[in-house]
Amino acid sequence: MANTPAKGAKDTQETTSPTDELSQLREIIFGQTNREIRADLANLEAKVSDNFSKLNNQLDKQFNDMKKLIDSQIAELSSRLDSANDGHANVQSQLQSTTDKLKSELEIAETAAKNDNDALEAHVVKELDALDTLFSQRHKELLERLQQVTSELSETKTDRKTLANLLSTMATNLTSDH
């Protein structure tokens, strides 16, 4: 009877041991790939964020330049208006024309900036979808390969040295793929 509890404990270790080994096998096979994919996604997010920042800075600069241009042209027209009392109607007409033109240019620039932002966002979404699809496909392939290897290991009852060699070979192959 004293042997029965020890044997039961041994059976429990044997039933959890393949699960632990499978978890370790998954970590060996998929761990590096998952970390690399997450790192790639983080890099992509950083690049996208950097591109958005650059675009915002560029737009701010363009708007500031346009504002300076508007301010300088308004100042020039104002001085003309003060100095030329007899051409008041003509100067007023030029001022309005310039203001309308600049407003039109500003609206065009705002529309172009919005279109650029929308296009960049669509491109980023497309790239993220493509990465997601690629990640899902590779994940599925790796799971299928893991299932195949697990099945082969279960069928052939490979010893630990053979299993270690197989895992080492698979890890080397995965590393060389990247």
Structural class: mainly alpha
Q: Summarize model confidence as the mean pLDDT.
A: 81
What is the terminal-to-terminal distance?
Answer: 56 Å
Principal-axes geometry comes out as: rod-shaped
Region (Disordered): 1-21
Give your account of this protein's structure.
Residues 1-21 are annotated as: Disordered. By secondary structure, this protein is mainly α. It has a domain at 54-177. The protein is built from 3 helices and no strands. It has helices at 3-83, 88-156, 160-177. Helix 1 packs antiparallel against helix 2 and helix 1 packs parallel to helix 3. The chain is rod-shaped, with a radius of gyration of 34 Å. The mean pLDDT is 81.
Q: What does this entry show, briefly?
A:
The chain is mostly helical and 178 residues long.
Structural topology:
Layout: H1 3-83, H2 88-156, H3 160-177
Helix pairs in contact: 1-2, 1-3
Keywords:
178 residues; mainly alpha; 94% helix
